[in-house]
Design goal:
This protein is α+β, with helices and mostly antiparallel strands. It is built from six helices and 15 strands. Strands 5, 6, 7, 8, 11, 12, 13, 14 and 15 form a nine-stranded mixed β-sheet that branches. A four-stranded antiparallel β-sheet has the order 2-1-3-4, with no helix packed on it. Strands 9-10 form a two-stranded antiparallel sheet. It binds uracil.
């Protein structure tokens, strides 16, 4: 791999910034100053920029507890995006796996691994997504049955059977909902079809990946090896 790609992929600087650093003699490969940004970095070589060793990571995986008010996009002119929250790296190729509405909180996987994302989101794979929701209205067993039967929310959308569990049922009810699709505003539209309103929504899990309860809204961490292995197994990559 070219030296400038190696360092820009790892977010050290832009390609032009790296060209300058190389020209100034601030980059070493295996202990020798390299001034050519097109230098082919040998497999396993030690690359040091400004005295800091840079390890190449082809793919990065972060679990984010998305806060309300932030949008699930890579960039936006007006609003803060989920990528603005990932401050640990400057790499530019990250994206969120799927979308949560601006006012939805909870689990979001951020990665640059397009193949894993594609597999997790594929409508054929039916990966379970578990949400906690607060509903304006009293949820009852008829609603549970309607979810289980596959709810028609509009002329063009009948949802796959979904699991609705009642945690508490007062004027404001608390529920768990498990859906296997990811249609736009799906859970809100499902409750709307029953004459109710979602007033709080948080995603708790996606397939084998469970939101770490130690992550407060807005914080994130890298996936563990075990979490990544479980996702690879779930999506048929191993
Ligand atoms: N369903 C919704 O209505 N909104 C979300 O953000 C996720 C699922």
């Amino acid at each position: 791999m070219r030296l400038d790609k190696f360092l820009s992929d790892m977010g050290v600087d832009s390609r032009s910034g790296i060209r300058k650093k190389a020209g100034w003699g601030r980059i070493k490969v295996n202990g020798k100053v390299v001034r050519d940004p097109g230098f082919a970095v040998p497999e396993g070589a030690e690359v040091v920029c400004d005295k800091v060793t840079v390890v190449y990571e082809a793919f990065s995986y972060y679990m984010l507890n998305k806060p309300a008010g932030v949008i699930s996009a890579t960039e936006d002119k007006r609003s803060q995006t989920v990528l603005d929250l990932i401050t640990e790296t400057k790499r530019k190729d990250l994206f969120p796996v799927g979308r949560l509405d601006k006012d939805t909180e909870g689990l979001l996987l951020i990665t640059n691994d397009g193949d894993l994302s594609h597999r997790l989101l594929s409508p054929k794979r039916h990966v379970d997504k578990l949400y906690f929701a607060r509903i304006k209205g009293t949820v009852n067993e008829d609603h549970v049955k309607a979810f289980a039967d596959g709810l028609k929310v509009s002329d063009d959308l009948t949802c796959l059977p979904a699991k609705l569990e009642i945690l508490s049922a007062e004027d404001i009810s608390e529920v768990h909902v498990t859906i296997r699709e990811g249609k736009f505003h799906q859970i809100k539209r499902m409750f709307e079809a029953l004459g109710m309103e979602v007033i709080y929504l948080k995603r708790l899990s996606m397939g084998s990946l469970i939101l770490d309860p130690d992550l407060s809204p807005g914080s994130y961490r890298r996936l563990t090896e075990e979490e990544l292995t479980a996702l690879n197994a779930l999506t048929g990559r191993i």
